[in-house]
# Entry
Amino acid sequence: MKILFVYPDILPYLPFWKGYYYEGIGSLSSYLKQHGHNTSLIHITKPISKENLINTVTNEAPDLIGFSSTSHAFPIVKKLARWIKEEKIPAPVVCGGVHPTISPDEAINTEGIDMICRGEGEETLHELCNKLAKGKDIRKIQNIWYKDNDVIFKNPLRPPCQDLSELPFPDRNIFEYKDLFHERLGEASVMISRGCPYQCSYCCNHVLNGLYGQNNKRVRFRSVNNAIGEIKQILNDFSFIKAIHFDDDILFLDKKWGTDFMLKYKEEVGVPFRCNMRPNLLDKDKVELMKKAGCFQVVIGLESGNDYIRNKILKRNLSNDQIVNALQLLNDAKIHTKSFNMVGIPFEDTSTILDTIKLNAKMHVDEIQATIFQPYQGTTLYNLCLEKGLLTNKELAEDFFSPSPVLLDTVTPEHVLMFRDYFKIFVRMYQILYLFPNILSRVLINSTDKVLSLKYTPKVLNKIFPSINSIYRLIQYKT
# Structure
């Protein structure tokens, strides 16, 4: 069987953009190749015309077309699938990825999509390809929802892979690997785990955990030896790779696994790395071990500096003290820090957004990213937005920096964009204000809070700095 993957990964405002490495396609491709199938990829990183898409698909002559889709990319998938159907390409179309998993009814009812794959796809696609090749019935494959005229066969989920070490290493050669976002900087994006145990209300992980129930492991890691083996293979196959970017949700969730991995990584790999961590999981010993192993950056999801927004609305279950202590440990170890922040969160107002800015200022974070809250279908926070009438009819934009379909009555859209655009500038400004003597500092901070909350401040700032909106996202995706 010849499987053609199609992965929309578009950021049209970035002239240098060649896309991210996507672990899902890499893993599916290697698994299918291991079982005797052929794979190829159309990695769509720029807007594509119907003619170019159809010509490319026709030249590939696939037996199966597989879209992989995030929620942001799904509006593009709908268009591309419709084009394929209009041109009567004979290969059946399956759509997998996170969006069909958390929003299956929308996906299966999309014109041009014959079936969807929910959950993990390695065993499912293997079974599907084998049955298609032999002309067998495909209507009852676990994880597959199949559309046969007006009848939809909604099959149950199969358990996710419990031992990731049984899977072959992902196929990076299916991509234009050296041109990808991190790889062009000499960093390989690597994932050696799947899943997250936390219940953050805005994230799809709690939806996925709910699908599989309590009897399946929420987080699974490759064995230490297997993970080290994959990294060694990457360094051997791609001489331009000089560092590792661990893309796992939380790399050292398991303390023993993390300790064993760090010791072996230091001894057998030794190249610099960056990773994501939760503040409550960091302690002095762990930070020192990470530093010795070569960690040069830790990314922390702060999201909101306001206790109520962060813990009652976002369900992060993190205190300010935990965040501050974690950042202090990293700063003391001279590990570069980066914070993820959101604005435009339901029930947020200008004062709570300023709390986020001020917490970043107090922590002296080295690098800051500010995004706009996006409501992903099926999540607790999406359902709350739906219940409170906060959702407009707009589709999700192409990324999480763009305005979202949420319309708040507690903060204006203009203020949301202002805080997104000037977030880093405001952080540095408050850092300066904190340097003044206490009484003067409080007066200046209170006055600044009031000015930034004024109705006309976003308009005034955009008149003073008219180009800031056009360059904002270029700053986020640094060259």
Observations:
- The CA atoms of residues 131 and 138 lie 6 Å apart.
- The chain has a mean pLDDT of 93.
